[in-house]
Amino acid sequence: MERGFIQIYTGEGKGKTTAAVGLAVRAIGRDLKVGFIYFHKAPEEWGYGELKILEEIGVKVHGFAEKHPHFFEDAEEEEIREETLEGVEFVEGIFKEKSVDLLILDEIIISVRDDFLKEEELLELLDKKPEEMELVLTGRGATDALIDKADLVSRIENVKHYFDGGMEGRPGMEF
């Protein structure tokens, strides 16, 4: 690609990661190299079917700061910040190597929303993105500055969700 853009999928609705995964599948189908880095997800705990299939189709998948205090009582905020910064450093390495055409940073916006990463730190990272690489950020609570920096922003709205009636997440549908 001559020019890659910055895309953000944010909002309170279901489907942010799903949209990013769909884009990854589309890119693989066009022989592009794809990287998928997730934050604040614990595959050992919940399984996340998308991670399994992404690896099977050739996507390089890595995870950082897998615990989040919302789901894990023993999660230490300082440790989560350190692990998030390790993820940022890892992304910088991918930027230098230019080893993928599309890089997805799944739930990294949560890192900013919940103060594990400063908004300025993420904006500085975005400034380092190689011109030809497409970059996707997902997560609830994208700040105005992140939205201004992005080339494409989709805000996914929750109109109605079965969670509101007490239904829990289901394998294959929510994870």
Automatic annotation (TrEMBL):
Gene Ontology MF, one: corrinoid adenosyltransferase activity
Protein name, as recorded: Cobinamide adenolsyltransferase
Pfam families according to UniProt: CobA_CobO_BtuR
InterPro entries registered for this protein in UniProt: CblAdoTrfase_CobA, P-loop_NTPase
Top-level taxon of origin: Archaea
Coiled coil feature spans: none
SUPFAM superfamilies associated with the record: P-loop containing nucleoside triphosphate hydrolases
GO biological process: cobalamin biosynthetic process
